[in-house]
Design brief:
Length: 519
C-alpha cells in the first residue's frame, strides 16, 4: 500500500494555514454571535448561554467516543497493517471500525435525546425555567452532529495514516461556514435555534468534503460488523482508557459550565468567547504539529529502543514552544485591542469586553502547557499507552473543577478561568514526568526554552512600547491594521533575536518557506 502523493505544501504548514483560516472564520462567527446576541443582555431565544450549554453533552459524546478515541486506536493499528503491506486487512479494519462506531454513537445519541432534560439539569442546573427548556430543545438538535462527525473522524484518520492532509484541512473551514450562514440568515428570526441548525449544516458539509480523499487513497469499503476480530478487540481495548482520559477533560468542561450557570447571565458566553480566543494559537500551532507528527511517532514507537522516538518528540516540542511562547506574550499584551476589534459590536457591551479580557489573560497562562499536552498525549498513544494520559487528565480535571468551584463565589467567571488553567498546568507536569520515565531522557531542552522565553519577553517590551506610542484607532479597518502592524513588528523582533541567540528552531521557519517555494 503506497502513500499517495497528495500534499502540495508541507503538511504542518498546510494544517497551520487551515487552522489559521478556520480561526479567522471562527472570529467572524464569534463576532456575528456577539453582535446579534451579546453576552450579559441575552434573553429568550437570544440567550447565547443556552446555545453554549446545549453543546456540552454532544461535545462530550464527540470527544469521548469519536475524536480522540478513534485517532488513538485507529491510526496505530491501520498504520501497522499498511506498513506490513496487508492491504485487505487494513480496509477490513477501517470498514469494521466505521460501522461499529456509527452503531455505538447512534445508540448513545438516542439515549441522550430521550434523557435530554436530565442531562441539561447536569449541565445547567442554575438556569431559569425558560432558558432550561430552550437548552433541552437545542441539545436534542445538536445530538445529530456526533453521528455525522463519526464519518468525518474515520475518513480523516485514514488521511492521517497516509500522511495526506489536504481534504481533512478543509473540514474546519466548511464547518464554520455552515454556522456563519445560519447566523446571517436565520439568527434574527429564529435566534439560537437557527444557529443550532447551522451546526448540523456545518458538520454535514464538512463530512461531504472528505469524500474525494477516499478516492485518492483508493479506499475500499467492506460491509462487515464483527466485534470478535482481534484488531477490533485491540482497538476497543485501547479506546476504553482513551475514552476515560478524554472524558475526564470533557466532564470537567461540563462542570465548569454548570458552575457558570449559577453566575450572572452571560457568564457561559464570556468564558466561551475567551476560550475561543485562547485556542486561536493552540489550533494553529499545537494541533497542527500533533496531528502531523502522530504517524511518525507511531512508526518510531515500535523500534527496539526509545531513542529515535525521544529525539523526534523533543524536536517537535521545541518547535511548538518556539511558536507558542511569543504568541502567549503577544496575546497577553494585545488582549484588550483584540477583544475590542473582534467582539465589541452590536449587543456585545464594553462591560462584556472587560470581563472577557479578564478571563482570557488567566487562560493564557497555561497556553504553552496545553499545547504540549496535546503532543505528549499523542506520544503515549503512539506506544498504545492510553492509561498514563488518563491518570494525568483525571488528576488535572478534578483539581481544576475543585478550584473553579472554590474561587467562583468570590471571583465569578475569572475563578473558573483559574480552575481551567490549574488543570492544564497539573496535567502537563504529570505527563512530562511520565514521559521521562517512559523514554528515560528529557523531552524538553530547558536551556533552549529559557532562551525562547527571554527573547519573547524582550519582544513583549517592544510590543508594549509600540502600543504606548501608537494610539488605538476607532474604525474597524484601522483596528485590524493596528493589530497586524503590531503583530508583525513583534514577529520581526522575535525572529531577529532568535537569529542573534542562534536558537535552532528559527531554521524551521526558513525551511518551511523554502519547501513551499520549491513546491
Amino acid at each position: 500500500m503506497k502513500k499517495p502523493h497528495l500534499n502540495i505544501i508541507p503538511p504542518t504548514l498546510l494544517l497551520a494555514i487551515s487552522a489559521l483560516l478556520s480561526s479567522v472564520l471562527g472570529v467572524v462567527r464569534d463576532r456575528l454571535l456577539a453582535k446579534t446576541f451579546g453576552a450579559t443582555s441575552g434573553e429568550g431565544l437570544f440567550n447565547l448561554d443556552t446555545y453554549y450549554a446545549a453543546f456540552k453533552i454532544p461535545d462530550l459524546l464527540y470527544f469521548i467516543l469519536i475524536s480522540g478515541a478513534i485517532s488513538a486506536s485507529f491510526i496505530p493499528i491501520f498504520t501497522q497493517y499498511k506498513k506490513a503491506g496487508e492491504t485487505k486487512k487494513a480496509w477490513q479494519f477501517a470498514s469494521n471500525m466505521l460501522h461499529l462506531m456509527l452503531l455505538i454513537v447512534s445508540v448513545i445519541a438516542l439515549v441522550a435525546f430521550i434523557f435530554a432534560p436530565q442531562l441539561t439539569r447536569l449541565v445547567a442546573d442554575g438556569f431559569e425555567p425558560e432558558a432550561f427548556e430552550l437548552t433541552v430543545r437545542l441539545m436534542r438538535i445538536m445530538l445529530l452532529s456526533p453521528i455525522i462527525l463519526t464519518f468525518s473522524a474515520v475518513f480523516m484518520s485514514l488521511q492521517d495514516s497516509f500522511k495526506t492532509f489536504f481534504y481533512r484541512a478543509l473540514f474546519p473551514l466548511f464547518y464554520n461556514v455552515g454556522i456563519i450562514v445560519s447566523i446571517l440568515f436565520f439568527a434574527r428570526d429564529y435566534g439560537v435555534v437557527g444557529v443550532t441548525w447551522g451546526v448540523i449544516l456545518g458538520a454535514l458539509i464538512g463530512m461531504l468534503i472528505q469524500l474525494p480523499a477516499l478516492k485518492q487513497i483508493s479506499y475500499k469499503h467492506m460491509w462487515l460488523l464483527d466485534t470478535q476480530k482481534s484488531d477490533i478487540r485491540q482497538a476497543l481495548k485501547m479506546m476504553v482508557p482513551r475514552t476515560l482520559s478524554t472524558g475526564m477533560y470533557q466532564i470537567s468542561q461540563v462542570f465548569y459550565t454548570r458552575i457558570a450557570s449559577f453566575l450572572a447571565t452571560g457568564s457561559i458566553t464570556i468564558i466561551y468567547f475567551a476560550n475561543n480566543l485562547y485556542t486561536f494559537p493552540l489550533s494553529i500551532i499545537a494541533v497542527s504539529f500533533s496531528i502531523t507528527s502522530f504517524a511518525t511517532l507511531s512508526e518510531l514507537a515500535v523500534e527496539k529502543t526509545p531513542h529515535a522516538f525521544a529525539a523526534e518528540i523533543k524536536r517537535v516540542m521545541q518547535q511548538v514552544l518556539f511558536l507558542v511562547i511569543p504568541a502567549t506574550i503577544g496575546m497577553m499584551l494585545l488582549r484588550e485591542p483584540i477583544i475590542n476589534t473582534l467582539l465589541l459590536t452590536g449587543e456585545f457591551t464594553a462591560q462584556d469586553a472587560t470581563l472577557t479580557a479578564q478571563v482570557l489573560i488567566v487562560l493564557l497562562l497555561s497556553l504553552f502547557t496545553h499545547s504540549l499536552n496535546l503532543l505528549l498525549v499523542r506520544g503515549f498513544f503512539a506506544f498504545h499507552d492510553t492509561k498514563r494520559p488518563f491518570y494525568a487528565n483525571a488528576v488535572g480535571a478534578v483539581a481544576g473543577v475543585a478550584l473553579a468551584y472554590l474561587l467562583s463565589d468570590q471571583w465569578g467567571m475569572v475563578g473558573i478561568g483559574w480552575g481551567m488553567t490549574a488543570s492544564n498546568l497539573i496535567t502537563f507536569s504529570i505527563l512530562l514526568i511520565l514521559m521521562y520515565l517512559k523514554v528515560k531522557t528529557p523531552v524538553i531542552d530547558y536551556l533552549n526554552t529559557g532562551k525562547m522565553l527571554l527573547i519573547s519577553l524582550v519582544m513583549g517590551l517592544g510590543v508594549w512600547l509600540a502600543m504606548d506610542l501608537i494610539p488605538f484607532p476607532s474604525t474597524l479597518f484601522l483596528k485590524f491594521l493596528y493589530l497586524i502592524l503590531i503583530s508583525l513588528m513583534g514577529g520581526v523582533i522575535y525572529l531577529c533575536l532568535a537569529w542573534l541567540f542562534k536558537i535552532p528552531e528559527r531554521k524551521m521557519i526558513y525551511h518551511q518557506l523554502d519547501r513551499l517555494v520549491k513546491k
